[in-house]
């Protein structure tokens, strides 16, 4: 991005990593604290509000941030950067911390903060993946950075507003007013066509098509229902024993059958293992369908998409490859909620793959990219999920 290169040239990577000492930070904090009415005014604001120095360290904040963090006082966050205090999953990728990693170059919050510290009022939306125990949560925030000068020193007043509900509403509007409406319209058209069908074989073929379209409509709605439940920690997992190759083969056949115009070719790797393991068939099928769907959408007409599964030690892996290498910019954002290469209001496929795999199926997900082989997404699950085991599944 052009903005990131400007920041790198003007500030330099080493400068971006620089921090003031604890004593210097405390002196700046005292400078802000003594401003008349500042604490009362800040604490009256409903959104997270911070004052940052030129090194992007927190020197003052309101109670909204402290309440979010739990049993924390202002002394704990002094000198810390926003991404670090919010536990952004990328904040510690480099020794310099928040603002110095490669992922920061696609972060709206980073650009807003840097512009604010250059004396420019800036507001940007940002997707942040934060650690929550052993898993992660996705935050959509709107970051407003407002420069301010106090006794000759430049600071930035930064507010962060949670816009997750706004993003979710837009996503659901897109789904129900676009995708579901298109499917429902197709269903209506097929029913209209059925009025004039007299040939028995043609009628049977039409019924099969109707069943497929109706099933897709129900599945689309169920997927969004389950995604919302998953984000709210309300999703119920019903485990059962699964045969890996049989499951994947069925999904590959579904994709092949749905391609009426020969736009793609989805194939099962003949070397795939048929391992037996305990997991949720419904959620796993959802993950694998999104892997196949994303591979198809990322590929040009006529491309070959290959899927396979293999047993590796105590794990079973599923993989889907498409021949198009994913760009570095997309790689840095691919698992973020609402990020998509297909336009505003999309982008839940890869996010839901990670959410369901890591939070509910006790698995792990990653991808590899190369000019020779294209892009390959891989999910892995334990053969034996011990916490799910009960007498019902024993033996």
UniProtKB/TrEMBL annotation:
The keyword Disulfide bond does not apply. Residues 175-385 form the Histidine kinase domain. It catalyses: ATP + protein L-histidine = ADP + protein N-phospho-L-histidine. Keywords: Kinase, Transferase, Two-component regulatory system. PANTHER family: OSMOLARITY TWO-COMPONENT SYSTEM PROTEIN SSK1 (PTHR42878:SF14), TWO-COMPONENT HISTIDINE KINASE (PTHR42878). It is found in: Membrane. This is histidine kinase. One of its GO terms (biological process) is osmosensory signaling via phosphorelay pathway. SUPFAM superfamilies: ATPase domain of HSP90 chaperone/DNA topoisomerase II/histidine kinase. It is an enzyme of class 2 (transferase). GO terms for molecular function: phosphorelay response regulator activity; protein histidine kinase activity; protein kinase activator activity. The lineage of its organism: Bacteria, Bacillati, Bacillota, Clostridia, Eubacteriales. Its EC number is 2.7.13.3. Pfam families: HATPase_c. InterPro entries: BphY/WalK/GraS-like (IPR050351), HATPase_C_sf (IPR036890), HATPase_dom (IPR003594), His_kinase_dom (IPR005467).
């Amino acid at each position: 991005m052009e903005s990131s290169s400007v920041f790198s040239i003007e500030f330099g990577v080493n400068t971006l990593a620089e921090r003031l000492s604890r004593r210097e930070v405390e002196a700046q904090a005292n400078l802000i604290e003594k401003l008349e009415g500042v604490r009362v005014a800040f604490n009256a604001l409903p959104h997270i509000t911070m004052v940052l120095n030129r090194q992007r360290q927190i020197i003052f904040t309101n109670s909204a941030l402290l309440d979010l963090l739990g049993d924390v006082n202002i002394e704990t966050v002094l000198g810390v950067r926003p991404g670090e205090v919010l536990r952004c999953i990328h904040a510690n990728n480099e020794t310099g911390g928040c603002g110095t990693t490669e992922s920061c170059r696609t972060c709206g919050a980073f650009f807003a903060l840097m512009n604010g510290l250059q004396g420019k009022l800036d507001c940007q939306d940002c997707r942040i993946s934060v650690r929550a125990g052993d898993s992660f949560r996705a935050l959509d925030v709107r970051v407003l950075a407002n420069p301010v000068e106090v006794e000759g020193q430049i600071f930035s007043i930064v507010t962060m507003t949670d816009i997750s509900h706004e993003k979710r509403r837009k996503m659901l509007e897109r789904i129900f007013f676009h995708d579901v409406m298109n499917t429902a319209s197709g269903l209506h058209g097929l029913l209209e066509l059925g009025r004039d069908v007299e040939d028995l074989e043609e009628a049977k073929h039409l019924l099969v098509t109707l069943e497929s379209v109706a099933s897709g409509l129900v599945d689309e709605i169920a997927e969004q229902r389950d995604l919302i439940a998953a984000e709210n920690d309300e999703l119920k997992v019903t485990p059962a024993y699964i045969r890996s190759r049989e499951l994947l083969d069925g999904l590959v056949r579904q994709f092949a059958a749905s391609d009426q115009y020969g736009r793609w070719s989805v194939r099962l790797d003949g070397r795939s293992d048929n391992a037996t393991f305990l997991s949720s068939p419904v959620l796993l099928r959802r993950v694998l369908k999104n892997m196949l769907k994303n591979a198809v959408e990322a590929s040009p007409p006529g491309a070959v998409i290959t899927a396979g599964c293999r047993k590796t030690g105590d794990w079973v892996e599923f993989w889907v490859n498409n021949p198009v290498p994913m760009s570095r910019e997309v790689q840095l954002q691919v698992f973020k909620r609402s990020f998509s290469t297909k336009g505003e209001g999309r982008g839940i496929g890869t996010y839901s793959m990670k959410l369901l795999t890591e939070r509910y199926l006790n698995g792990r997900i990653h991808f590899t990219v190369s000019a020779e082989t294209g892009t390959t997404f891989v999910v892995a699950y334990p053969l034996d999920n011990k916490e799910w085991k009960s007498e019902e599944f024993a033996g």
